[in-house]
Automatic annotation (TrEMBL):
<dbReference type="InterPro" id="IPR001564">
    <property type="entry name" value="Nucleoside_diP_kinase"/>
</dbReference>
<dbReference type="InterPro" id="IPR036850">
    <property type="entry name" value="NDK-like_dom_sf"/>
</dbReference>
<dbReference type="GO" id="GO:0004550">
    <property type="term" value="F:nucleoside diphosphate kinase activity"/>
</dbReference>
<dbReference type="Pfam" id="PF00334">
    <property type="entry name" value="NDK"/>
</dbReference>
<keyword id="KW-0067">ATP-binding</keyword>
<dbReference type="GO" id="GO:0046872">
    <property type="term" value="F:metal ion binding"/>
</dbReference>
<keyword id="KW-0547">Nucleotide-binding</keyword>
<keyword id="KW-0597">Phosphoprotein</keyword>
<keyword id="KW-0963">Cytoplasm</keyword>
<keyword id="KW-0460">Magnesium</keyword>
<feature type="binding site">
    <location>
        <position position="101"/>
    </location>
    <ligand>
        <name>ATP</name>
    </ligand>
</feature>
<dbReference type="InterPro" id="IPR034907">
    <property type="entry name" value="NDK-like_dom"/>
</dbReference>
<dbReference type="GO" id="GO:0006241">
    <property type="term" value="P:CTP biosynthetic process"/>
</dbReference>
<dbReference type="GO" id="GO:0006183">
    <property type="term" value="P:GTP biosynthetic process"/>
</dbReference>
<dbReference type="GO" id="GO:0005524">
    <property type="term" value="F:ATP binding"/>
</dbReference>
<feature type="active site" description="Pros-phosphohistidine intermediate">
    <location>
        <position position="129"/>
    </location>
</feature>
<feature type="domain" description="Nucleoside diphosphate kinase-like">
    <location>
        <begin position="11"/>
        <end position="152"/>
    </location>
</feature>
Amino acid sequence: MPTPDLLDPKKEHTLVLVKPDGFRRGLTGEILRRIESKGYVLKGLKIKQADRALLEEHYAEHRERPFFQGLIEYMSASPLVAIVVEGDRVIEGVRSLMGTTNPTLAAPGTIRGDLGRDWGTGQVENLVHGSDSTTSAIREIALWFPELEYHAED
Ligand code: UDP
């Protein structure tokens, strides 16, 4: 049996963040319920106050975008919950559970569509992050969970 802090490299993993607005609003349980009900397995979970350096690295691809500074402010305003989730096609599956970026436009039935609000502040607060590709997932898990190691099950 693998110990809980080890990841099986043969399985697919993604990084989920319950963003500060989701954690503040007490929606962590609801978001985890949707992920677990789908059959995905939690492999790591922590509450964290993210600093600017971590977030600038996490969102490096958006560095030149006009919303970048606001995004860093939003994500560092209060603690968030970081989670490693495992499952078949979990990267696509979590993206599908999340819904599209803007909560006003996200489909009903999705986390952002059901629970997200447009506060009219110009800053998109959309409750949740999920890695968008295998490359991103591996990079983001290493960034947020450097203590997790990959070990094949025997
Ligand atoms: N974002 C924003 N304004 C935008 C686009 C994105 O504030 O016009 C924020 C939003 O929090 C989003 C994050 O930047 O979740 C990352 O953007 P991306 O396009 O990667 O969206 P996601 O993959 O999270 O749906």
